[in-house]
UniProtKB/TrEMBL annotation:
SUPFAM superfamilies: alpha/beta-Hydrolases (SSF53474). It comes from the Bacteria. This is Pimeloyl-ACP methyl ester carboxylesterase. It comes from Chryseobacterium taichungense.
Length: 213
């Protein structure tokens, strides 16, 4: 069976490269698309979902913003199982920072040039505080198109979703981006920051082996 995987905001699949997926499944990575000008979220989800062959059973796995994306895709093309890592099941699980962005509309008001290459590098430097032991932080965030970054942050801030109890959630207990205190995860990675798929890959691999048996 195929496992379709969507990585995090601005991240390529290096953040997931140490994970060992069950050998009897085929892993298919779905790259982020650059949003069209003023593209609405549903239209974008439809385009992302085009890469999925739903003529046969499949699984969905999403990390961070990818976790939000696979839950939206699941509404269009239902999967056998949906697993999210370092992500949220509903808007009720948003952090205080993200909720503030939704209320104040700050992400929408920021100009696209705010998200240029220089700003992206500064943003990535701040991510080091989330996981200072990871020297490869800059290598994980390769999708740096300014419009994509601005659009994505807006959509995360505005995202509203009723929890699907069938979604399997894996969280790190040291995650600052999506704090575990707002969630009731099925699996908790002890000492896991938001980058736990890279830093705790052995434990994550074991969990996924059981989930995708």
């Amino acid at each position: 069976m195929k496992i379709y995987v969507v990585s995090g905001l601005g991240a390529d699949f290096k953040v997931l490269e140490k994970i060992k997926f069950p050998e009897h499944h085929e892993v298919v990575f779905i790259d982020w698309l650059i949003p069209e000008q003023n593209e609405d979220f549903l239209h974008y989800v439809v385009r992302m979902a085009e890469k999925i062959d739903d003529s046969e059973p499949f699984y969905l796995l999403g990390y961070s913003f990818g976790g939000i994306m696979v839950q939206e895709i699941n509404k269009l093309k239902p999967a056998r199982k949906v697993v999210i890592m370092g992500s949220i099941k509903s808007d009720r699980e948003k952090s205080r920072l993200i909720k503030t962005g939704q209320i104040t509309r700050i992400p929408k008001l920021l100009p696209v040039k705010f998200f240029n290459e220089k700003t992206t590098n500064i943003y990535s430097m701040f991510r080091k505080f989330f996981d200072p032991k990871n020297p490869r932080i800059l290598q994980y965030f390769q999708v740096r198109d300014p419009y994509y970054l601005k659009w994505s942050i807006e959509k995360i801030s505005d995202w509203k979703f009723d929890e699907n109890p069938d979604v399997i959630q894996i969280m790190g207990d040291k995650d600052i981006v999506f704090p575990i205190k707002n969630c009731r995860p099925d699996f908790t990675i002890k000492g896991g920051t938001h980058l736990f798929p890279a830093t705790k890959s052995k434990e994550v691999s074991g969990i996924l082996k059981g989930v995708f048996e």
